[in-house]
Amino acid sequence: MFYISFWIPTAVLTAALVIRLPGIIRLWRDPLLRAVGGLLLLACAVFVFCTPSTIARVNRLTGVPNFSAPWCYSLITAFCGSCLLLLVTWRNGPYDRSAATRRATRWVVSAYSGVIVALWVLFLLADAREERVRDLDTYYATTPFMREEILLYLVAHAVACVLTFRLIRDWVRAAGLDAWLRRGLKLLGAGYVLNLLFGAAKLTAVVARWSGRDLDWLSTDLAPPVAALSAILIAAGFVLPHAGQYLHDRRRVRRAHRELRPLYRVLCAASGEGVPFALRATPELRLTRRETFIRDVLLTLARHIDTGLGSRAYDAALGLGHPPERARALAVAVAVLDAVETRACMPSPAGPGGAPDPACLLHGIGAVSRALRRPADVAAVRAAAVPAESVTGPRVRVTD
């Protein structure tokens, strides 16, 4: 029989909560983040208290046989209502105050609060003296008041899952969604489909008891692992948009840092210094320091830039078949290499074309650095722009 320990989804949900916790603490006033944190905490509570060992322990501590039944049913119902409420708030925005949003919020809060109250009232009216840790739903399926309690929580669970799935489905179909948000919503949708399967298995087993048949395995063997898989998918769905965007931003920063390496090495060789390495510096800080160093050195090279050479190099690059953006980057690369060599040979004012505008020189340093990754292209443009006999001074070797 397929089995998943309830402690596995508990660990996944806890990890999801830990991942979201820094953002929740930092932006505590954001009601949406608080709602996500509360929902994940409630989901953890569901799986902690619905574990058979915890059920038995709670019953012993309270001294009431099957006290865990209304307690677990209440947690499940509160979780379902919170999911529905969060989806309404998430989709419409945390600060939406429209009449439709307020009406939906009031309906969810009042309906699921009423269900929780009814669960406890029915338990007090029922006669459930024999403790059942694993098969309470089917064992008491025909017991007065317990029968109604079990049916009530299953129906409330199913209604919340259907409504939440419909909200997610409609939202996924909307245009203009962030890719990570769309993936997270798809995982949430899959999780709620499994939640519906959990409820269907439980309800089928209960109805079978009403007709005198024994399908208890649906409730005791099939439903628990389905619920565990559902929780894992739901946790992943809530975390993926945040974690995916975070990793995407990290990858973008690191890629930008690597792209600047060729130009950085050229300017390090020209200035005789570089950015000191800091082990604990964040990727964003390293990128900022590298960009600042490149811009500072380029400003010192500005008076050695020959704008006439840059114009000829641009025309030469176009003549060699490069598109305009690529040709512009190659032209600046040629001009920078020429300025480095000129300053190394004889510090002097700008070349015959005059000093360039610093703003133009500093624009697009990423594209210039990418152009330097192809030394052959830079050499070809330079050869076409400058006669071989007029190129003097040491060559600067460009490596990636």
Automatic annotation (TrEMBL):
Membrane listed as a keyword: yes
Transmembrane among keywords: yes
UniProt xrefs under Pfam families: DUF6545
Keywords: Membrane, Transmembrane, Transmembrane helix
Residue ranges constituting the DUF6545 domain according to the UniProt record: 252-345
Signal peptide residue numbers: none
Regions crossing the membrane: 6-25, 32-55, 67-87, 107-126, 150-168, 189-210, 222-241
NCBIfam families, per the entry: MAB_1171c_fam
Name used for this protein in its record: MAB_1171c family putative transporter
Protein source organism: Streptomyces cinerochromogenes
Taxonomic lineage of the native organism: Bacteria, Bacillati, Actinomycetota, Actinomycetes, Kitasatosporales
